[in-house]
């Protein structure tokens, strides 16, 4: 297996607003959200409550993690495979504790590298902030305090695609399309996650599948960006 794929863990997270209903937030959080909402782009002129339902989930101070999916490369009989594992749940503290244990017990912390699309701006800091809010000590790979830049083991396919162009944002969906990567998308997209979670009985299951699809897409994109052949779909396995 290519050395660049060793000790590499692809991940994606899905997040929602911390409360289903805005009016159930305590008064301090409502006040602070209203203050934040005043600085958000609001071309539809939505109220603070409407903005909360649509956008609170992307801010770690007002949201929570409901799903984390991982992908790891391995070889089987000379063929490259991807193994996908996901952790989901309504109890965020329990979920994040499982994530921490997975990162610390399944991998060598000194060499583990994490990769996500837009991970440096979203997934990695969001996970870290929510762990701290839940009173969970950060696993070594997420704890960057005191580390030198070259000791931070974060990779980001969006950053790789920018090639130093700081103003360029390219979605994972667009990149998988132009690289002709087979779609792993389900019947929802990121803008629907909050609504699906809070309105559907089996919404979490749909979201988990969607998250797994993004991990597969990111893993295949990572291969393309290193001029490596993508993994045959028959060699992609979802494990429990």
Question: How is the topology of this model organized?
Answer:
Layout: E1 8-17, H1 27-37, H2 48-55, E2 63-76, E3 79-88, H3 92-105, E4 113-116, H4 123-133, E5 154-156, H5 157-162, H6 172-178, H7 193-199, H8 203-225, E6 236-239
Parallel strand pairs: 1-4, 3-6, 4-5
Antiparallel strand pairs: 1-2, 2-3
Please give a structural write-up.
The chain has 240 residues and is α/β, with parallel strands linked by helices. The protein has one domain (3-18, 62-239): Nucleotidyltransferase, domain 5, CATH 3.30.420. Helix content is 36%, strand content 19%. It has 8 helices and 6 strands. It has a 6-stranded mixed sheet, sandwiched between helices. A hairpin with a 2-residue loop joins β2 (63-76) and β3 (79-88). α6 (172-178) crosses α8 and α7 runs antiparallel to α8. The longest helix is centred in the C-terminal third of the chain and has 23 residues, at 203-225. The radius of gyration is 18 Å and the shape is globular. It starts with 7 loop residues before the first strand and ends with a strand. The mean pLDDT is 93.
CATH homologous superfamily - what is it?
Ribonuclease H-like superfamily/Ribonuclease H
CATH fold name:
Nucleotidyltransferase, domain 5
- Fraction in beta strands: 15-25%
Q: Gyration radius, to the nearest Å?
A: 18 Å
The CATH level-2 architecture is identified as 2-Layer Sandwich
Can you list the strand order of the major beta sheet? 5-4-1-2-3-6
Uncertain parts: none
Number of domains: 1
Beginning-to-end CA distance, first to last residue: 24 Å
What is the number of helices?
A: 8
Give the overall form: globular
What is the class in the CATH system? Answer: Alpha Beta
Return the structural class.
alpha/beta
| Average pLDDT | 93
- Compressed to H and E, one letter per element, the order equals EHHEEHEHEHHHHE
**Approximately how much helix is present in the residues?**
25-40%
The counted number of beta strands is 6
Q: Main sheet, how many strands, which sense, barrel?
A: 6 strands, mixed
């Amino acid at each position: 297996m290519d050395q660049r794929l060793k000790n590499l863990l692809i991940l994606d997270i899905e997040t929602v607003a911390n409360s289903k209903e805005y009016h159930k937030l305590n008064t301090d959080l409502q006040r602070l959200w209203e203050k934040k909402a005043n600085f958000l782009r609001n071309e539809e002129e939505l109220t603070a409550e409407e903005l909360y339902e649509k956008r609170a989930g992307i801010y770690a101070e007002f949201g929570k993690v409901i799903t984390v999916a991982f992908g790891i490369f391995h070889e089987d009989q000379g063929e490259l495979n991807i193994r996908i594992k996901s952790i989901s749940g309504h109890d965020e503290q329990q979920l994040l504790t499982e994530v921490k244990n997975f990162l610390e017990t399944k991998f060598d912390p000194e060499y583990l590298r994490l990769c996500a699309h837009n991970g440096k701006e979203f997934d990695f800091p969001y996970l870290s902030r929510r762990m701290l809010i839940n009173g969970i000590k950060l696993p070594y790979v997420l704890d960057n305090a005191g580390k030198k830049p070259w000791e931070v083991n974060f990779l980001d396919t969006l950053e790789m695609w920018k090639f130093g162009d700081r103003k360029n944002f390219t979605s994972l969906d667009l990149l998988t399309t132009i690289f002709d990567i087979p779609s792993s998308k389900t019947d929802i997209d990121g803008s629907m996650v909050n609504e699906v979670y809070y309105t559907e009985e089996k919404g979490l299951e749909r979201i988990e599948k969607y998250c797994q699809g993004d991990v597969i897409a990111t893993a295949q994109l990572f291969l393309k960006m290193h001029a490596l052949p993508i993994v045959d779909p028959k060699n992609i396995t979802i494990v429990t």
